[in-house]
Amino acid sequence: MKLYTIKSEGLAHNSYLLLAGSEGAVIDPRRDCRVYKHLASKNCAKIKYIFETHRNEDYAIGSLELAYSTGARIYHGPGLEFKYGETLMDGQEFNIGELRLKSIHTPSHTDESMCYAITDLGAGKDVALVFTGDTLFAGDVGRTDPYGPKEAPRLAETLYNSIFNRILPLGDGVIACPAHGAGSVCGGAIAEREETTLGLERRQNPAPQKTKEDFVSFKIGEYHERPPYFRKMEEYNLNGPPLLKGLPNPKPLQPKEFTEEISCGGVVVDTRSPPAFGGAYIESSYNIWLEGLPAYAGWVLPYEKPILLVLEYKKDLDKAVPYLIRLGYDAITGYLSGGIDARYNEALPIEHMGLWTAHDLKEKLNGNITVLDVRGGDEWRDGHISGALNIHVGPLEEHIKEIPSDRPVATLCKVGLRASLAASILRWTGFKEVYTVLGSMTAWKNAGYPTVT
Amino acid sequence: MKLYTIKSEGLAHNSYLLLAGSEGAVIDPRRDCRVYKHLASKNCAKIKYIFETHRNEDYAIGSLELAYSTGARIYHGPGLEFKYGETLMDGQEFNIGELRLKSIHTPSHTDESMCYAITDLGAGKDVALVFTGDTLFAGDVGRTDPYGPKEAPRLAETLYNSIFNRILPLGDGVIACPAHGAGSVCGGAIAEREETTLGLERRQNPAPQKTKEDFVSFKIGEYHERPPYFRKMEEYNLNGPPLLKGLPNPKPLQPKEFTEEISCGGVVVDTRSPPAFGGAYIESSYNIWLEGLPAYAGWVLPYEKPILLVLEYKKDLDKAVPYLIRLGYDAITGYLSGGIDARYNEALPIEHMGLWTAHDLKEKLNGNITVLDVRGGDEWRDGHISGALNIHVGPLEEHIKEIPSDRPVATLCKVGLRASLAASILRWTGFKEVYTVLGSMTAWKNAGYPTVT
Amino acid sequence: MKLYTIKSEGLAHNSYLLLAGSEGAVIDPRRDCRVYKHLASKNCAKIKYIFETHRNEDYAIGSLELAYSTGARIYHGPGLEFKYGETLMDGQEFNIGELRLKSIHTPSHTDESMCYAITDLGAGKDVALVFTGDTLFAGDVGRTDPYGPKEAPRLAETLYNSIFNRILPLGDGVIACPAHGAGSVCGGAIAEREETTLGLERRQNPAPQKTKEDFVSFKIGEYHERPPYFRKMEEYNLNGPPLLKGLPNPKPLQPKEFTEEISCGGVVVDTRSPPAFGGAYIESSYNIWLEGLPAYAGWVLPYEKPILLVLEYKKDLDKAVPYLIRLGYDAITGYLSGGIDARYNEALPIEHMGLWTAHDLKEKLNGNITVLDVRGGDEWRDGHISGALNIHVGPLEEHIKEIPSDRPVATLCKVGLRASLAASILRWTGFKEVYTVLGSMTAWKNAGYPTVT
Amino acid sequence: MKLYTIKSEGLAHNSYLLLAGSEGAVIDPRRDCRVYKHLASKNCAKIKYIFETHRNEDYAIGSLELAYSTGARIYHGPGLEFKYGETLMDGQEFNIGELRLKSIHTPSHTDESMCYAITDLGAGKDVALVFTGDTLFAGDVGRTDPYGPKEAPRLAETLYNSIFNRILPLGDGVIACPAHGAGSVCGGAIAEREETTLGLERRQNPAPQKTKEDFVSFKIGEYHERPPYFRKMEEYNLNGPPLLKGLPNPKPLQPKEFTEEISCGGVVVDTRSPPAFGGAYIESSYNIWLEGLPAYAGWVLPYEKPILLVLEYKKDLDKAVPYLIRLGYDAITGYLSGGIDARYNEALPIEHMGLWTAHDLKEKLNGNITVLDVRGGDEWRDGHISGALNIHVGPLEEHIKEIPSDRPVATLCKVGLRASLAASILRWTGFKEVYTVLGSMTAWKNAGYPTVT
Q: C369 near C408, Cβ under 8 Å?
């Protein structure tokens, strides 16, 4: 038996390739799926099955993509009218080499959620490993808000039942393989450590330490960000996302072609760092740093418009493209050939963004400015600048009217990356004087300046 | 926390790189150690510590090599006069980022054996993971014969105590990371599955199911191969193997230079496949197939002579060199430039080896031949050809007089690879007519020919 | 201006990628054409034009393949009814960045042959470089036999005229870029040196030193091998070869599947070395060593049957597949998974080939054997073994009846590779006792044994 | 014969690896010299000789480095007391496989300049190829100012004589391989085209079209930049540069460590783009863009201080390090780990640079500002902004007093890269208000704004 964990960075999504002898199965494949086939082939194995733990909402599932190139069969849990693949019942079994995979229906995060228990028949009858999807993470459990607040109590209870009645009884010694690691929006407190077992979770995971009542009320009280692209993902992952048959190949666009594409409705995504963006950028760009695409593109980018990229280096395409298609942004028209330099060399218009250090902010603080902290509620509550306004960067556009339009705005987050995205949004929604605070709260605290909680 | 398992193929040796934040530790590094440094650097971490689980006997430890290039400190267990590194007591603790590592003295396979338990302080106080060295494997436990048969009962008892009193009490939910996987000579029945936990081992590993008495008598009764290079490894791993500062770089040798090196005492190792070797080889070569070097070079190659390689492709050097230096064979003078073709193109002498199929053997069986089965005792007992002689390929040279010298010999193993090594040994020890049986017992059985047990 | 020479090994075919500014052109692309696009893209250029110097007969042209992925336009010389691309007249001009390309109609090797002269307008009006196709090579000139012996005198004269009237007058200082390098079947005496100029060729190339009469009679008297696949290439390169849209991806076949594919008409091509092939092979295989595929596959393999590969290493596919598709062998069904070992492990039938050293041959020479020298006429005339029979390996099957069938045959070539192919042909056409002489004439001469001329 | 041209980007330096059979020679190796050995080894050849065409002044020669790892012998021309290698006379011959190399003493750019003519003995007695060093380039000839203006007339005359008496007589058909391509500071008008011949140069190169008198007066009148690092290179290339035995390995430095290294005298080189640098930089940095290091580091960086790097991506080290050591900057202490973000996250001081577009400049032009154009004299004369001040960026520090210190300065070059370097110099020499004009004269002209000549 060989187990490969394939991570989608930024989403903190874990998919798994399980191989035994000449057979293999993939759990929750991502859309850029060549990696599974490559690893299977290196081990002289063939991918026979694809198992989905649930209808994911934070990325577009790659099952159809992988089935297209391998012929593998796709399986889902019961209770949803999936438009592709086959539906499993609780307790169905599959052989993968000398392994036995058994489906465990675990209504929890969603009603159709499935866990998959693996027994190594060569070693005995005990379950050795369980793929826990969004039911149980290292140090956390799944969200119970996907059907809205009304359904949350019901989901919280079924989640509790699934964990206590179906998963933990498999035994302390069972290795747990969850669908997400630390940093995922699908859990708030997932541990940095990737390796875990049911025993460790039973004893150390805070959620299962509670009574059912406490558990349910804790889950109901929890707040999780819910980026708008989740709706699209739910639709995609029910019907099957469009088949790409490989990665899109954005075109190099000369500065004038790039400008034309903008006037035809293209949305500019600039993945450079805040100082570089601040130094020179194209009007109406979204500044989403490269590694921030998985987490923030889905908050702000529309699906109906083509995407135009401004990159630091051409090589950054190799990351930007998979990051975007994992969220279903398939229409990536092109990138600015030659980068931002090509733009200003052509004397085409350029914008600058104000850039402040923490010290600059401190100095201006008493003046007539708005300090806009775009972090999430938890981060805000952990300590912020007195007098600041808190609006999360994700839904910032909807809340734009809450920001006074008659004075300068300084945007803040943890290290300045989301602040720069927020600043870019403010600018193209009409704010004249906007400053990104470089280093943001990290620098502010390192400078020893005061915060309130 | 990030855990990387670095495997030495053929030896089925597992070393581990454990990273947390900007710090890292390596458990039982191998000698070709660039991989640890590379992975640490990719994660912006620095290797601070090297922990050895015990004085290994099946490979030359890479601690000095890795310490040379990283400045990391080296630690051993107590009870042996190591000539390098520092000695730990039971219960010493180290911090690696947010992890706590604690040494557990577990006399077992050797008296100074150490396990290392890891607690993720961010998650709680439970041990999350334990490096079990040669104390506990997936599905097996360590050997108790390193000090000879007299000491075996004592070691078996301390091993039993260490497992039951020190390791299993850490909890079922603890992930176990042993020093070896399936195929290692350090355990006879290690599982194919790499992922395991103390819970799984407590319930499914056959050894801990026994009473102490049964356990001890089972361990005493066990037979394990003990290749002669183990002595050299014990010496190396006590005093520290020679510092290589990088991999040796064997020279391309023209056919005549190669011949000269042979006459100066060089030992020829031909890593080609049995049919290629059979078709044309150089007198007095050892035919050890490329992937067989880790397991068989240490049985037959002397340490005091330089090694000369005959390869199918030049690229095979990239495997042959690390395989050899892991066993302490550092004096790899060169390889035959242009391969065996260069030899016969120069009209230098060439030998052929007889090659039989299973069908050929069947036909000749009633004649006046010796059928020499060079597999291990367990394999032999599982089924062999009636009338065959069984001598393990490893110590074949010492037993050469047991083989009738007046008739043809057909060599057999499982698939013909060890048979070809045996045939090569027979030929240069004077046997005139020797045949490697291609496919050996696998082909024999697939052909439906009879075996006895 | 940047000039890349892309070589097809074995065919000694040179194609060229010429870049200037953001534009590029390819001369005589090969079918595995990703390399041109990759290099153009690295230089931020786009391939606009594809120029063919003539209807090639030694490989399948990649123009359609490259046009498919780049949109480039394809141009040929006049006088042939090409079924794809556009036809040029003498003297047409194209701009590639700051370069001017001018077509020069040079009937020579074929009637529609074109050379392409490049002027660097930035430097002056002189021609800087000329693509000479099969008209002029370094040290040699093109073949004049493609239309058969009757047309040869006419072609020889037009070739002479084209060289003297159209090419050499461009000036001594012009760099010449021919379609072939040393080792091509399209010229007998092409120099090892790749860099040349019209001045060097005017003074040092033996052909242009002759009078027209001598030149014509020399060309008529020349003998060149003409492998049968040339007919297929002529047909392909007139109509356009099938569009592959990428490289074929042969399947791994288990031994029994492989056997089934043979019984369905598949032809086995075994690319291993003569000793490995001799040690164990599958009946009715062709033994064409890996690097020999470009030159010898086209002599012996049929187009109407699928190809089945036996390889030393799986990685050898990366060479075998492009080598075969360059000759139009697109139907590569699969390869024997696990190699020849997998075959004999299954107890499926295996053949051995006799393998002799030069010394063995010397010893047996006086007996009742046929010594079959399968080299070309020129090599044969340079020195062979007295009493040997000379039949070129290419058309060996047609001449099989000229070989006495009542006695052993020893096959010879220069180093034994073609000898092993010949031996493989002899065996499956019914010869019982066949020996490949390892090292062949090279070993024979190195051993100091006598030859006659 | 195989000829590889190995280019050092930025320096536009060409070195050559010439292989024939199993032997090779390198002409003018660079210091990061693994490439030569790698290519030779791929061709199964050994580098026997290293030939220097002259004591180079624009980079540190790699002869000692390459000789250290290959054992090759080093040769120079006569007339200088080199402290390493061996001195050649005119007309000495060496065999490299079937090639003959002959030294031609060509006093020209320097007195000891050597050309090396190659004859392919297999093709005839004509010279096929000549390595022309800094004597003759494609479209240009070498500089005659290395010994200062007094010696220039003498050098110009010997250069003329060497070209006409020693090089051009080798014949029009000889391929010329010069030491530099377009963009080198060693010639002002070298052609983009890399392939050339003596015939093309005889007819198209402007220099040899002149009479000797015109030639000499033209060369005397020529102006070439002479960066100060030339002196160091002359010293290094006479005595042999320090032996590196591999590339230096700069350390990752945490922000505070970085600051400490600055206070210990380290010089900060920031290789990011002008907008990124403008957005946030460390006081007293030199902003030399990555690809500008080869050409501009030698103008401004001192040799006696250690270098500290600020990079966009860590991967940029792979370029920065070779670029610097080619100029003899071996003391590269480290790079800012985490980049500029790490700096401002720590609340350490940050500077901003003013960034103007061409339109901003136009608007401010009539105000009280200095427009500082830092391009070379030729570029300046080709068209500049009326009223601008021209000081070349290279020696800017020496001329700093010529710039009015009482008003804002806007820096300009061709596209803004040198302008940003100039701006960084101005800032740390005390100018308060400095603006880099993004896109500089390119944007200015593209905007349609007026220039004077």
A: yes
Q: Mention every residue, 6+ apart, whose C-beta is less than 8 A from residue C438.
A: B280, B341, B344, B350, C274, C275, C355, C356, C357, C358, C416
Burial of A402 (0-12, 13-18, 19+ CB in 10 A): exposed
d(CA D218, CA D341): 52
Chain D residues within 8 A of B252 when measuring between CB atoms? 44
Q: How many residues does chain B have?
A: 453
Query: For B120-171, how does the pLDDT look when each residue is reduced to its tens digit (9 = 90+)?
Result: 999 999 999 999 999 999 999 999 998 988 999 999 999 999 999 999 999 9
Residues of D with CB under 8 A from a CB of B: 44, 252, 337
CA distance C127 to C104: 12
- Residue C218 pLDDT > 90, yes or no? yes
Q: How far apart are the first and last CA of chain C?
A: 50
Mean pLDDT of D302-328: 96
- Show the CA angle centred on residue C5, arms to residues C3 and C7, nearest 5°: 170
Q: Which of A334-343, B224-233, C80-89, D99-108 has the lowest mean pLDDT?
A: B224-233
Q: How far apart are CA D273 and CA D288, in angstroms?
A: 8
Tokens of B206: 């056959």
More confident residue, D137 or A187: D137
Strands of the sheet with A409-412, listed across from one edge: A354-356, A434-437, A409-412, A370-373, A389-390
At C213, the amino acid letter reads: E
10 Å Cβ neighbour count for B210?
A: 14
Q: Which of C235, C301, C230 is nearest to C266 (CA)?
A: C301
Strand partners, A180: A13
Interacting residues of D55 by C-beta distance below 8 A, sequence separation 6+: D61, D76, D80, D82, D110, D112, D234, D237, D238
CB neighbourhood size of B318 (10 A): 11
* pLDDT at residue B109 greater than cutoff 90: no
Chain A interface disruption, residue of D312, D350, D418, most A CBs within 10 A: D350
User: Nearest residue on chain A to B198, judged by CA atoms?
Assistant: A173
Would the CB atoms of C203 and D126 count as touching at under 8 Å?
Answer: yes
Distance in angstroms (rounded) separating the CA atoms of residues A304 and A266: 10
Does A173 sit within 8 Å of B198, measured CB to CB?
Answer: yes
| Chain B residues touching chain A at CB-CB below 8 Å | 1-3, 20, 98, 120, 122-124, 126, 128-129, 138-139, 171-175, 191-204
From A99, which residue of chain B is nearest by alpha-carbon distance?
Answer: B193
Under 8 Å CB pairs connecting chains A and D tally to: 118
Q: Do D126 and C204 touch (CB under 8 A)?
A: yes
Separation between Cα atoms, residue B374 and residue B421, nearest integer Å: 10
Please give the ipTM for the structure prediction.
Answer: 0.91
CA distance B317 to B336: 11
Query: Helix or strand or coil: residue A383?
Result: coil
Beta-carbon contacts of D387 under 8 Å, excluding residues fewer than 6 positions away, are D365, D371
H-assigned helices in C365-416: 377-381
Beta carbon pairs, A and B, within 8 Å: 107
Query: Which residues in chain A touch residue C252, judged by CB atoms under 8 angstroms apart?
Result: 44
Amino acid at B288: I
Please tell me the pTM assigned to this model. Answer: 0.90
CA B412, B414, B415, B421: dihedral to nearest 10 degrees? -50
Q: Domains in chain A and their CATH numbers? A: 2-239 (3.60.15.10), 251-345 (3.40.250.10), 354-446 (3.40.250.10)
Chain D interface, best mutation among A438, A444, A445, by max D CB count within 10 A: A438
* β-strand partners of D6: D15
| pLDDT (mean) for D150-168 | 95
The residue-averaged pLDDT of A280-295 equals 96
